[in-house]
Amino acid sequence: RNKAVLTLASASEADAALFAAAFELLEQVPDHAELVTAFKDRLASFPGLVDLLKSLFGKTGAMFLKIAILDLLGTEGGPGLALAAMQDKNPWVRYRGINLAGALMAQHPADIQRALAAAFPKESVTSLRELMVRQFLAGGRKEKEVERFLVEQAERETEPSIEEALAAAVLDVPIDDTN
């Protein structure tokens, strides 16, 4: 395993067949997430790797592999990867997805805000619900439906940490007849 990582990482030239073999290995044995680190310095020279890694993220159920892919791609994975991670069954993957969504907020504010608002009621982990709300604080201007969501949640929420985060988020909402 370590030899495979070193071979991939140190190869001065790697062809598509080598990457295909590594991806096949990851699909068959997903608990070897450290293989993902071998792609770190290859993303720029092999643009197709981003799509392959995103596809692998969707196929695997392995938490460590998903986290390794999220950590490697970061914002290069785009909002689609962040939103997929926010819907994962594993809370650690969702945590990474929420943080990634926050990092993408400036580039894709409307999409990210809508996705956070949609994911919030489904989230069962209190700390993740609070983290979702805190992402809105850096989101700048919000669409009316997102503003309405924040105001409604602020009225309903009973968890103190989330109430506090919602109170901070609704301070940016202009008061009008709709809210």
List keywords for this structure.
64% helix; 0% strand; 179 residues; mainly alpha
Succession of helices and strands: HHHHHHHHHH
Mean pLDDT: 85
Number of strands: 0
Overall form: elongated
Structural class, judged by helices and strands?
mainly alpha
How would you name the oligomeric state of the polypeptide chains in this document?
Answer: single chain
Helix content: 55-70%
Give the strand content: under 5%
Question: pLDDT under 50 segments (min length 5)?
Answer: none
List the SSEs and their pairings.
Blueprint: H1 2-10, H2 16-28, H3 48-59, H4 63-73, H5 78-86, H6 91-104, H7 109-119, H8 126-136, H9 144-156, H10 160-170
Helix pairs in contact: 2-3, 3-4, 4-6, 5-6, 6-8, 8-10, 9-10
Summarize the structure.
The protein has 179 residues and is mainly alpha-helical.
Q: Could you walk me through the main structural features you see in this protein, from its secondary elements to its overall organization?
A:
It is a single chain. The protein contains 10 helices and no strands. It starts with a helix and ends in a 9-residue tail after the last helix. With 179 residues, the protein is mainly α. The protein is elongated and about 60 Å long.
